Structure prediction request, 719 residues.
Amino acid sequence: MTLPTGPAAGAGSGSGLVHLSASSVSVLVDARGAGLPTVLHWGAPLPHGDLEAVALALSPPVAHSALDRPVLPGLVPERATGYRGRPGLTGSRAGGQDFSACMGLTGVQVEGAASAVVLCADEEAGLELRTELLLAPGGLLRLRHSLRNTGDDAYRLSELAAVLPLPQRASELLDLTGRHCHERTPQRHPLVRGSWVREARHGRTGHDATLALVAGTPGFANRTGEVWSVHLGWSGDSVSWAERLPGGPGVLAAAELLAPGEVELAAGASYSTPWTYAATSSQGLDGLGRAYHAFVRSRPGHPSSPRPVVLNTWEAVYFDHDLTRLGELADVAAEVGVERFVLDDGWFLGRRDDTAGLGDWTVDPVVWPQGLGPLIDRVRGHGMSFGLWVEPEMINVESELYRTHPEWVLHAGQRLPPPWRNQQVLDLVHEGAYGHVLGQLDALLREHAIDYLKWDHNRDLVEAGHHGAPAVHRQTLAVYRLLDELRGRHPGVEIESCASGGARVDLGILERTDRVWASDTNDALERQGIQRWTQLLLPPELVGAHVGPSRSHTTGRTQSLSFRVSTALFGHLGIEWDLSRAHPAELSGLAEVVTLYKQLRGLLHTGVVVHADHHDPAAAVHGVVAADASEAVFAFVQLTCSVDEAPGQARLPGLDPVRRYLIQPLFPGGPPGTSQRYAPAWLQGSGVVLTGSALGLVGLAMPILHPEQVLLLLVTEQD
Ligand code: DGJ
Prediction:
């Protein structure tokens, strides 16, 4: 249906008010005027009948010493309207011409209750804008712009952003930062007047990427408060910001970060932004997670088979590839119930350490004289699938590929970018380089029974130029194309997105991959935080979580088996440990955990992820509640020593308030270490039965656990 563009703003015919609604979320777009439409409301549901009244009620006053009409941020806030915040579109032609676009509305197409396309143009500036707004059933809003140059000469685009309004009461921010082995560290701060801008210039998503930029009402928490958030589904450079100025409402925004001259639109050419994924909730951060997870799980390509238990060889053997050793590892892995064996870095030509080999994706005949066949046969003979590590976007100077094609490295000027882990980035914009990698990976997959690729990316892009021009944008698209092409040729192969751990976690890469490696640290204490915040965006089944040996390779901390497994259980479970050195008791503990994971994964990988607002920062309570609320698994996690003698109650949120549930402890990998004389009474017997309401509002007394211990609770509905 195409709506008429309607009379001038303020006339209030109502015909140009577009209301998208789904699952407790409304988006009200005011397309009544002749100019670029404005999102008047993005948040709690609005009654359908009252839209004009809502629009009237939201229309602000005009201050002294201000423009004569109220200025709201349009879908792409424009300087031409008098908007004084960061514009949504910046760019110009030679000599700065057409630097200030002034779009007129040319059409609005509404499809059902949840999607609209807004068409605008500035004929004088020679620009056409198309904006798609799609509200998914779980309430997640997706927003994307396309800009077409209808002028006669080139238009140099600097930025095109998805911008959404924030009410003034959203005065607190939460975003994430981090580094290698310490990804997803939350930071909270007030949203004062000015801008909070998060730029990522890594040429990949980045260890410090804020998976979501969240604004909310003061004190918003896991289960309470109104919250709004944006995530950019893009694996190159990006920017997201929150802005509040004295002259108007705030905004949350996200855009691809473009280098000068990176996107120059020739006459007739177009640019499309990545999708921005925007979630809002009146039930705190868990409400945001619910919206993101519902959308991610609804994608047609979302993994539907049970997530297999993985054995990854990296921390088990590193570069020490040897058929006998790895064959024995596969045997033990099969004994503990592993279902997928992944051979990590070190198998290809010249790759004895991290100084050489990247770019030469053929099996090293020295280390693997009989090829990978014997190992693959042994793995598959045990009924396990086989996975292989690759890092297709990279090249070592010490490689056959570099010796033949030194020009296939992304660079600027006549210099090589500074090395990072001894490697450079292959210029996939170059068709020759692209074809080389595609050909080698395709041959690898055709010639071997490979079910899974762990696709790594171990450096930031620095001075990433193609023929002297900035190329992160085109490189990112080339990587997407490469993944799409390989998946098209080998549809059965699953792919993991890894980038020195968790430096490429975004919904762009996840359109063509099946899980992320959340971090290179398997330290369970670090993992508690990393998984919690990665799972703000992604459901647990997409987040790789491995059990390592008792002494963490990355932090040197020593942790009990029960803490390690009870942490990894809440992701896509794997093991990364030289099991030939594991104690028999550890192996039998692992086998029990693997069995438990197989029993619980149906619930853990389809249920609703919940986090209690726990009173003590030394502990955390999280869980997964079955979609029908018939059962749940919770973890009470003692992170550090508490100030209090006893931890008090843990509340278990998200259950059906009227149903009654039996709560019983589970002890995978052994009982957690405690320092109490007597356990809480309910833990001394065979559990306790309580209503969901009592569990959510009152909770249960928790035992006094040692730091770095988890009490796991199985919650089952009673008839
Ligand atoms: C970085 C990854 O995150 C690790 O898991 C491992 O695959 C190494 N690269 C291998 O070089």
Notes: The two ends are 50 Å apart (CA to CA). The first helix runs from residue 51 to 58.
